[in-house]
Specification:
The structure holds two protein chains of two kinds. By secondary structure, chain A is mostly helical. Chain A is 81% helix and 0% strand. Chain A has two domains: 52 residues, no CATH class; 210 residues, MetI-like fold (Orthogonal Bundle), CATH 1.10.3720. Chain B is mainly α. Chain B has a single domain, classed as MetI-like fold, CATH 1.10.3720. Chain B is built from twelve helices and two strands, in the order H-E-E-H-H-H-H-H-H-H-H-H-H-H. The radius of gyration of chain B is 23 Å and the shape is globular. The chains are: A mainly alpha, B mainly alpha.
C-alpha cells in the first residue's frame, strides 16, 4: 500500500487511457452500424439504444456485396500464391548466395509510387481489353506482394543453418529436393507470416483496384468507396460495410501478432 | 553447378519483376517525355523535357508540393514523437502488455478506406463525435474537412491514429531487446531517469527510430487512400497532395504524359528523403 500502490494505479489508468484510443474508433464504427438511421441522426448521440443487425443484412442483400468480398478474396489469394511460387526460390537464392544487390533493388521497388505503375498498366490493359478482369488486378497486386514476400523470406532463409542443407546434400539430395523437403518446412512460420501480410496488403489495396476493376471484378474497398457517393446520409449502412471489410484483416492479425512488426520492418532494416 | 542452381532459383522471379515493375517504370519515364492526351485517340508525341519545364510554372503543382510537405512533416513528426514517448512509457513489465500490443496492431492492419470513411463521419459538423466532444468541453465546433485551414490537421490526426502504433511497436520491440548493463551502471553512477532516457536509451534506439521513420516517410509522402476517400483533395485543392494531383492529371484529365512526369517527380522526392535518412542512420552506426 501507500505511495507505490498509487503509482501503480496511475500507471494502469494511463495505460487504459492510451489503449482506448485505437479501440474507440472501431467501437464507434461498429456501434454506428448497429444503429437505425433515426438513432444515428440523434443529437446528442445515443449511447443507449437497442442494437439491430438490419444495416448488416441490407449491406449483404442489396449491393452485390458477397460478390465483391469474393473478388477481393480471389485476387488476394492468387496474388499471394503466385508471389510464393516465384518468391520463395528467389528469396532462398538471395539469402544463400548473398545477392544483396537484388535485395536493395526490391527496396527501391517499394519506394516507387503505385501511380507510376498504374499509368503504364492502365494503358496496356486498356489496349488488351483486360480492364475489369482478375488478370489486371492480380498482376498489379503482385507488384506489392511479390517484393514484399521475397523480402521477408530472405530473412527467414538466412537464419537456416547451412549445415542442415549440407547434411541432406551429402545424402544425395539435389538442390531442388533440399529446397522442397528440408527448407520449406523449416521456414513455414515465415511463409505463414508473409502470406497473411501479403493477403492483408492485397485486401486493403485501393488505388489499383479503383482504376482497373469494374462491375465484374470490383473489390470491397472500391465498393465501399462507391457507396459513399450515393449513400452519404445512410451512416448505418456505410458503417456496417466498413466494419465488414475491415474485419478480415483484423482477425488475420491475431494469427501473426508475434511476427507482424518484424515482418513489416524486415526489408528496411538492411537497405 | 552452383551457378546453374542459383539462376534457376532466381530467374523466374527476376523475369516476373522485370515485367511487372521494371518495364512500367521505363514506360513511365518514356511517357514523361511525351504529350499524350489519351481521350484524343491519337498516340503520344515527343515533347522532350517540356512537361517538366511546364511544371515549374504550374501553381497547382506547387500547391500539391506544399500539401505533400505539410502533411508529411505533420504526420511523420507527430507519429515519431508520440510513438517514441508511448514506447518509453510502455517499456516495463506489466499485466496485459501482450494484449495491449495486439490492440495496437489493429489500426495498422485496418483497411485504409474503412478507416477514412469512419473518420469522415467522425468529423461531420452536426453529428460527428469529434464536434460533440468539443462542444462538451466548451469549445466551438469546427468544419474540419470542409475548412481549408483545418483539413490538413484533420487528415494528419487520422493518419497519426492509424500509424503511430507502428512507430510505437517498432521502437518498443527494440527497447525490449536492449541489454540491461548500461542502465544498471548508469543507476550506480547516480543518473536520474530523465538522464538515462536522454543519454542512454534514446541513442541506443535511434537506429530503430530512423528505420521506423523511413518506413513511414515512404508511405506518408505517397498518401492516397486517406485523402482521396476523405476529401478528394478538397475543399477546392486545399488537401490535394502530389499523388492526388497525379491521379487527377492521369485519370480525370487523361493527360498521361504530364501525369508520368509528375510521377517521376514524386518518386525522386521519396528516394531523396530515404537516401537522406539512410545517410543519417549509417553515419551513426559507423
Amino acid at each position: 500500500m501507500g505511495k507505490s500502490y498509487i503509482k501503480t494505479s496511475l500507471f494502469y489508468i494511463g495505460i487504459a487511457a492510451i489503449t482506448i484510443l485505437p479501440l474507440i474508433v472501431f467501437l464507434w464504427m461498429f456501434l454506428t452500424g448497429l444503429k437505425t438511421q433515426m438513432e444515428n441522426l440523434a443529437i446528442p448521440p445515443k449511447i443507449i439504444f437497442s442494437p439491430t443487425l438490419q444495416n448488416f443484412k441490407s449491406v449483404f442483400a442489396q449491393n452485390d456485396f458477397l460478390k465483391y468480398l469474393f473478388n477481393s478474396f480471389i485476387v488476394a489469394v492468387f496474388a499471394v500464391a503466385i508471389s510464393l511460387l516465384f518468391g520463395l526460390p528467389a528469396a532462398y537464392a538471395i539469402a544463400r548466395f548473398k545477392m544483396h544487390k537484388i535485395g536493395l533493388t526490391l527496396l527501391i521497388a517499394r519506394m516507387i509510387p503505385f501511380i507510376s505503375y498504374l499509368i503504364p498498366w492502365f494503358i496496356i490493359f486498356r489496349k488488351l481489353r483486360l480492364v475489369d478482369t482478375y488478370i489486371a488486378l492480380i498482376t498489379t497486386h503482385l507488384i506489392i506482394t511479390l517484393p514484399f514476400i521475397i523480402w521477408i523470406m530472405v530473412n527467414f532463409f538466412e537464419n537456416v543453418p547451412l549445415s542442415l542443407e549440407e547434411a541432406a546434400r551429402i545424402d544425395g539430395c539435389s538442390y531442388f529436393q533440399v529446397f522442397i523437403r528440408i527448407l520449406i518446412p523449416v521456414v513455414r512460420n515465415g511463409i505463414f507470416t508473409s502470406s497473411v501480410l501479403g493477403f492483408i496488403f492485397s485486401w486493403n489495396q485501393f488505388l489499383f483496384s479503383l482504376i482497373l476493376s469494374g462491375n465484374r471484378t470490383m473489390t470491397v474497398p472500391v465498393a465501399v468507396f462507391k457507396f459513399i457517393s450515393y449513400e452519404e446520409i445512410n451512416w448505418g449502412g456505410l458503417a456496417a460495410a466498413a466494419t465488414t471489410i475491415t474485419l478480415p484483416p483484423l482477425i488475420l492479425t491475431l494469427f501473426i501478432q508475434k511476427h507482424m512488426i518484424k515482418g513489416l520492418t524486415s526489408g528496411a532494416v538492411k537497405g | 553447378m552452383k551457378n546453374r542452381v542459383r539462376y534457376t532459383f532466381i530467374l523466374p522471379a527476376l523475369l516476373l519483376m522485370t515485367i511487372i515493375v521494371a518495364f512500367p517504370i521505363i514506360y513511365n519515364l518514356y511517357m514523361s517525355l511525351h504529350i499524350w492526351f489519351v481521350a484524343s485517340g491519337s498516340g503520344p508525341h515527343w515533347n522532350g523535357l517540356k512537361n517538366y519545364i511546364a511544371l515549374l510554372s504550374d501553381k497547382r503543382f506547387w500547391n500539391s508540393i506544399r500539401v505533400t510537405i505539410v502533411f508529411t512533416v505533420g504526420a511523420l513528426g507527430s507519429e515519431v514523437l508520440i510513438g517514441v514517448l508511448l514506447a518509453l512509457f510502455f517499456n516495463r513489465q506489466f499485466k496485459g502488455k501482450d494484449i495491449i500490443k495486439t490492440i495496437f496492431l489493429f489500426p495498422i492492419a485496418a483497411t485504409p478506406v474503412a478507416v477514412s470513411l469512419i473518420w469522415g463521419m467522425m468529423y461531420n459538423y452536426d453529428l460527428g463525435i469529434i464536434n460533440v466532444l468539443l462542444k462538451a468541453i466548451g469549445l466551438p465546433p469546427l468544419l474540419w474537412l470542409a475548412d481549408p485551414r483545418w483539413v490538413i490537421p484533420a487528415l494528419v490526426i487520422t493518419d497519426a491514429w492509424q500509424w503511430t502504433p507502428l512507430i510505437l511497436l517498432i521502437v518498443l520491440s527494440n527497447l525490449e531487446s536492449l541489454p540491461t548493463d548500461p542502465f544498471e551502471s548508469a543507476k550506480v553512477d547516480g543518473a536520474n531517469s530523465l538522464q538515462v532516457i536522454l543519454y542512454i536509451t534514446l541513442p541506443m534506439v535511434k537506429p530503430a527510430i530512423i528505420v521506423a521513420a523511413m518506413i513511414r516517410s515512404i508511405d506518408a509522402i505517397k498518401t492516397f487512400d486517406l485523402i482521396y476517400v476523405m476529401t478528394q483533395g478538397g475543399p477546392n485543392i486545399a488537401s490535394e497532395n502530389l499523388n492526388l494531383y497525379i491521379f487527377n492529371m492521369g485519370f480525370s484529365y487523361f493527360r498521361m504524359g504530364m501525369a508520368s512526369a509528375l510521377a517521376i517527380v514524386l518518386f525522386t522526392i521519396v528516394m531523396a528523403v530515404n537516401v537522406f535518412l539512410a545517410v543519417i542512420r549509417n553515419r551513426d552506426v559507423t
